[in-house]
Amino acid sequence: MVYIPGFVGAQTAAAWFSALREDVAWQSERRRMYDRDVDVPRLVARYPLDDPGLPAPLAAAAALASQAAETQFNSVGLNFYRDGRDSVAPHNDHLYEIVAGNPIALISLGATRLMTIRSKKMPRRILDLDLENGSLLLMSYETQKHYDHGIPKTKTRVEARISIALRVRPSKKDEAAEADSSL
User: Fold this and answer.
1) Which of 82, 107, 129, 136 could form a disulfide bond with 7, CB atoms 3.0-4.6 angstroms apart?
2) Is residue 180 pLDDT above 60, yes or no?
3) pTM for the complete prediction?
4) Tell me: domain 2-28+40-176, CATH 2.40.50.140, correct?
5) Cross-strand bridge partners of residue 149
6) Which residues, in sequence order, are CB contacts of 33 under 8 Å at separation 6+?
7) How far is CA 109 from CA 12, 64, 134, in A?
8) Of the candidates 127, 126, 130, 128, which has an alpha carbon nearest to the alpha carbon of residue 113?
9) Which helix (H) or strand (E) is 177 found in, with range?
10) What backbone phi and psi angles, to 5 degrees, belong to 11?
11) DSSP string, 43-96
């Protein structure tokens, strides 16, 4: 993992935050957890990076993160944490949804929020990391195998935060070839 505070300047981060908050078609979702459907405690949005309707801040963020990570990302997921009640439970990205060997880049905009990163095996190691406005966190593919990460709820009053999560997802052609080879 690599954490770069101030990856995006404060003025740029504020402009991106404002534009994304206003221009993205944020969606609420429900998810199956523990044998029942629950509301996802944040708003979300997703775009392929070749989408002609991709908001300009996402194209700029992807270009900067791609350069820093030396990776050509093709997908972006957004999370809008409206306040301290919004969160994401500890998890790792599904390995079948990302291409092996490529990192995940997280750019944080808005309020600082705590990310908890913990090892899956004993001894349990826990790292608490404050994701600051304009920061970049690069998590390797291997990190997804060995660690969970999440944004816990907080009773402390916090302003809104947007997380830009850039990934390399398998193409439909790659998925078809993998399916053919397993027959």
Assistant:
1) 136
2) no
3) 0.89
4) no
5) 91, 117
6) none
7) 10, 14, 5
8) 130
9) helix 172-181
10) -65, -45
11) EEEEEETT-TT--HHHHHHHHHHHHHHT----EEEEEEE-STT--EEEE---GG
Tell me the pLDDT tens digit for each residue of 36-79: 887 788 999 999 999 999 999 999 999 999 999 999 999 999 99
Q: Tell me how far apart the 2 most distant CA atoms of the chain are, in Å.
A: 54
DSSP string, 145-164: HHEEEEE---SS----EEEE
Q: Give the other-Cβ count within 10 Å of 29's Cβ.
A: 11
Q: Quickly tell me which residue has 């790792």 as its tokens.
A: 92
Q: C-alpha angle 131/134/138, rounded to 5°? A: 60
Q: Rounded to 5 degrees, what are φ and ψ at 170?
A: -65, 140
Mean pLDDT of 153-178: 85
Q: Using CA atoms, how far apart are residues 110 and 122, in angstroms rounded to an integer?
A: 34
Q: Report CA-CA distances (Å) from 155 to 1, 84, 87, 176.
A: 28, 6, 12, 46
In single-letter form, the type of residue at position 74 comes to N
**Cβ-contact 39, 133 below 8 angstroms:** no
